[in-house]
């Protein structure tokens, strides 16, 4: 959507309801033209629109010995030309072969086709006609084609997977994953989200594949062709929707494992037969959120379309966490099948937000859909926002509205402060660019922008804007202008921004949606007069980044010691320029800006105010909201990195952590400390000193959470324990390691271990243990039926420090014992598991690179090998990096991973240099802050903590 850049923002409101902003000139475009506009070369012309698809798929499994796991397809699409002189129909196809193409007019008369061919790079099927199509007249395009199922989920399209059932028999299933551009692997189609149509599926399968689940209800009862041993199924048409939302699953024995039939359509959880009884939690989540969204959007699910199912499938393999296919959401099984005795709290909590996220997509994503992936944030930002904020309304026990900060806000502040960051609305064209835009910006910044906006306009106006947006654009593709119009209409009606003088919502929206980055608010308090001067500039993490002139409209909220007001999230002022003055009582007191860190910006203060904040955090911690304590920690680490606050001042402020035991504060602190200590890895003595400093700050929280969860503790407390123990044990905290090992020994003797400490027990049991411990856990892994527990056990096996066992573990990732989507994760576990492991992993990579490429599926969309090979670099020291680089240059030049790995090696060297240059400063700052706390006592304590070099 290059055209957007050249549009004056001023004119956009008028444009919003006009033609879609794509400017593909069919007439001037001929196949011979080689220098086509590179920006849009992957896009289809919008001169022909599909209306209805009838898709016939004959699925064959191993019974078809000459071509196992393949399919024959026939697709009928009714189409119409919406421009004149269209003599070429261009659509997507990425199948094995196109066997025939015919075109009929509405009288069923054949329209002559001159020729058709495939342009493989773009997956274009181009059909040339002898005479142009009549405009706005229906034609029927018929394509007969053949295709193959992919092996495993990574390449998406139609793929097959397997699992072992309760009778120890290997079972096969075949399913689909089309988002964002893989429907073209299953049937020729207009595979861009804007080309909405209805889809009617007709599937045939061998009779021993017992069922088909899909988007919609069955239209015609299954019929058995006895002679061929095959069954025919026909399904109702979908609502008008994008091609990527079509799906089905054919299996030998998947079944409904939980359902609520009081709904129409019933809410159903579907899984392999041996997960029966383990879908109840997922059902509770799906039912609760469906009810909530039905009311919130004022457009109940059942009214969206009479044919849709409300199914949730737990797929043993899945390339993402979940995918919102309309009527039938698929999830990676580990997120949906929960076992209350072993599933750890982070998985349980994530499950709640994921089910809610996917259900929110039924409205935001499926009913309305981003016009093109440049606007993915409209789908993903809303689903992410509701996945936390709406879920909190229905399942308050998870406190997801607060967890939003570490999951989305802080994640976005971190990524969006790089020099290479992009705006929410960002041109993407190639498949790789499309995949890349499904990332932090679209999800996290999108969600954070929406929450910031909701606070500003109020929750009722926000809800109203959602309803307008859905109503005005139902079953259509939408873009930022449609969304703007919905906001503008609701805001105008409710007069929700009347209180803000000189504030222009249009500009606010334009800047946050179309500009990259975000600001830092610079606060200077005159403590004698009570005057507060605010300034802003774009925040870059890199101190050497070129400054930017960009001004961001900033919602202002603040509290002072005498007037704490942290619960108020509606901004008192909007800062629209580069400078602004506020007046408070002229008391000498702390001020804190950005209540509960709900605004998408960072804050820094003059030195005196910072030291007052630091003092308040130490002496009257509870007077500052815990999310603002977390904000201070998150901001201070970023400010130290960007050299806006020096380390000694930063560590003075962080001193309060010694008495802190709030989850949100500690999760920010752990990520800040981890960032620093990973840069000290090559200087182990310095790292050990730093670790002992960190551990001295953690004593209080470690003791507070302990190893004995109480029966009525909140999920957040369980998460605190999980993260604190994991980090403390990694740093070699003696009691943490000992207690974990003790419980691991008990586990071996068949004792049960509370799931809330299971991660540390597994990991430390293996890290500190030997062959027998490894064998024990491996045996447990093989026997386990719970995918999330299996992944925890892989994490633990990767923590062995015995090179032989580690090698055995790494080899496991080359077998089917580690599921395709878990392979890179498991590879990373080996690096995370123990600092000595990287060199063993390097030898494994050097010896097995060809197998790794095959087994980790090198050419799948997320580039799993690039990511594995890059992450290895960040764990190696200089001698390891030299060896790695030599090997790459000698043997891997020209491979798809070469450039990215070399650049990862360069980053690793930069990190090492950074650590070497800053170690003294950081350790001095740490020592200094420890000293000022309670003098020599603390130093003594640090000296006595036995730190293992981890
Ligand atoms: C708000 O800003 C937009 C874009 O800069 C401008 O077109 C519009 O006139 C402004 N509205 C008001 C009320 O000033
Ligand atoms: C299903 O039936 C086909 C023959 O129709 C056979 O080739 C195949 O092995 C069977 N599969 C299973 C798992 O029984
Ligand atoms: C279609 O082609 C005819 C004949 O070449 C031409 O006269 C007419 O202007 C074209 N129409 C458009 C919309 O390009
Ligand atoms: C179909 O046939 C009728 C009657 O011969 C004719 O009037 C009409 O134009 C034809 N439609 C098309 C699309 O050719
Ligand atoms: C790798 O980098 C070289 C030199 O910058 C470049 O010419 C080449 O195209 C890059 N290869 C890939 C696969 O990106
Ligand atoms: Zn999503």
Question: How would you portray this structure in words?
Answer:
- The protein has about 950 residues and is an alpha+beta fold.
- It has 5 domains: about 1-250, Immunoglobulin-like, CATH 2.60.40; about 255-360, Neutral Protease Domain 2 (Neutral Protease, domain 2); about 370-515, Orthogonal Bundle (Neutral Protease, domain 2); about 520-625, Immunoglobulin-like; about 685-950, Zincin-like fold.
- Helix content is about 40%, strand content about 20%.
- The chain contains 30 helices and 31 strands.
- An 8-stranded mixed β-sheet has the order 5-4-8-2-1-12-15-14, with no helix packed on it. A 5-stranded mixed β-sheet has the order 9-10-11-16-13, with no helix packed on it. The chain has a 5-stranded mixed β-sheet with strand order 17-18-19-21-20.
- β17 (about 255-260) and β18 form a beta hairpin.
- The longest helix has about 35 residues, at about 900-935.
- The chain starts with a helix and ends in a 6-residue tail after the last helix.
- Residues about 1-40 and about 935-950 have low confidence and may be disordered.
- Bound molecules: 2-acetamido-2-deoxy-beta-D-glucopyranose (5 copies) and zinc ion (ZN).
- One 2-acetamido-2-deoxy-beta-D-glucopyranose (NAG) binds near residues 106 and 107.
